[in-house]
Amino acid sequence: MRLVGATLYALRIPFVEAFSHSATERRWSDSVVVRVRDDAGTEGFGEGAPRPYVTGETVETMLEHLGRDLWPRVAGRDLPPAGHLPGLATFLPETYLAGALAPNAARAALELAMLDCALRRVGRPMASVLPPRRTRVTYSGVVTAGSVERAVQHARRMRAIGMRHVKVKVGFDDDVARVTAVREALGPGVTLRLDANGAWTFERAVAVLDAVAPLGIAAVEQPLPRGPVDDLARLRQATPVPVMVDESLVTEADADALIEAKAADFFNVRISKCGGLARSLAIAARGSAVGVGVQVGSQVGETAILSAAGRHLAAALPEVTFVEGSFGTLLLAEDVSVESVRFGHRGEAPLLTGPGLGIRVVEERLRRRAITVRELSTEG
Question: How far is the C-alpha of 29 from the C-alpha of 368, rounded, in Å?
Fold first, then answer.
């Protein structure tokens, strides 16, 4: 099996409602989808979500990196056997991108596309590569930035549909009032997490967390900006609220440093951020081996492609505490697959059992929603 062609789609799918947090506001999906084609005409799809403030990638640099550095090093070569994830991870070369922490969104998109293509060629589902350990995946709800009144409205809707886990964005002047109001709206039976997206100083983090700890906070995600892991370790000792790392966890080296410093109670593992399924599995395994909990996170505005990959990862991990994503058309004006990936009542969603990633991508939707389309071949 050799790859003979690829198409890159830089998407812009409007959101039903703006999604905001302390670092940015998003009104549309800005994912990059990769479609690969092999010598038998089989296609596979992958997706990455570039984030300048996380991996250092932008849509433009991701497109450039895929076309210039990654695709030429896999085009025309024989791929590893279908579904051999370690072999696929080795097959995909290690690359670097100037000005970026790691070109992980680009790597993830191409890895997923190759894996989807290889499995579809032989008619095998992702479960043959990542055997599921559970029959359903339960997702969390997210309360975005905005007024306290709006946060309460969102929290009440989530309680009404039976969501069992909710995360609220913080990092603002009204954090304590916001968290207090959301907890009141949710009631005591729903787990509540906070996500500061690195907006707090050490002193502000301690003050807010001390104030809201009695409300029963399951974890606080990325309370401090990415920086010295010792700062997170010190905060972990200063507050009773468990610390989850996100922007501080991009590479396997990050995972090792965080573990050595005893700086985290949870790892937020996101496939695009961490560089694909193989590396996400490796990071999760590092954490689980030393008692660090795992959350399978998502990228705001991801399409059904990344959502499907995240569901397979969440179903396969030995232990997973929280799962995010699969908002589908709850957030996107239109998704790209025939099948809906949206979670349902109580945040529950079934496993995806079709070939490859388990979804059928509608290429017409990709072309209609793309602001840039680039065709690649074995000639470049």
Answer: 13
